[in-house]
Write a structure and sequence with these properties.
The chain is mainly alpha-helical. Helices cover about 50% and strands about 0% of the residues.
């Protein structure tokens, strides 16, 4: 959920608390605030048990960061140094996979690629996707291979007339040609 979404949700819960204090029932609260009846009922239960404070936000959900604030500062310094300073000399690109590997090497903490991406965004960095082509690529050799070798290796596709327009249902017996299987059944029914 975005920060704006969390703020709006918090505001709606506080509005619900005000309505509950005015003895407005949960179905009416749900209608007025345009939320589900289930949410309004859950909020009403929380409000009855703990008052307005029970409806206050507990902060962002999800697992906590596995790196300390000091480690996060160090990671930001490492990222500013660039990939070459940490062994990736082929290009100057911080991919999420590289950052996850760097975190593992430096801090002995395992991060997934998506977790490393979120961590990079939190630090003000964005992962970059490297170009998939090698700098030494020979375009003429690639073209020659596609024209000669690929044409021989490639399996032919399905012939155009081999399938019907509807793969899940055969043509009805009434419209089958006379020499088609099942045509005699259609003739008897007619």
């Amino acid at each position: 959920m975005t920060v704006a979404g969390r703020v709006r949700r918090e505001s709606v819960r506080m509005q619900a608390a005000e309505l509950f204090e005015q003895e407005v029932k949960p179905p009416e609260v749900a209608r007025r605030l345009r939320v589900s009846l289930k949410s309004a009922c859950q909020w009403h239960q929380l409000w009855r048990e703990g008052g307005v404070g029970a409806l206050a936000s507990r902060g962002p959900s999800g697992s906590r960061c596995r790196l300390s604030p000091r480690c996060l500062e160090k990671l930001a310094v490492y990222l500013e140094q660039g990939p070459a300073a940490h062994g990736w000399v082929e290009d100057q690109v911080w991919t999420a996979a590289r950052v996850a590997m760097l975190i593992g090497r430096k801090f002995h903490v395992s991060y997934s690629v998506s977790g490393a991406t979120r961590l990079m965004h939190r630090l003000g960095f964005s992962p970059q996707v490297p170009a998939r082509r090698v700098a030494e690529r020979d375009e003429q050799a690639v073209t020659a291979w596609k024209e000669a070798t690929w044409a021989e290796v490639k399996e032919p596709g399905r012939p155009a007339g081999a399938t019907s327009a509807s793969r899940t249902r055969q043509a009805s017996p009434a419209v089958r040609p006379e020499d088609a299987p099942g045509a005699d059944e259609a003739a008897r029914r007619s």
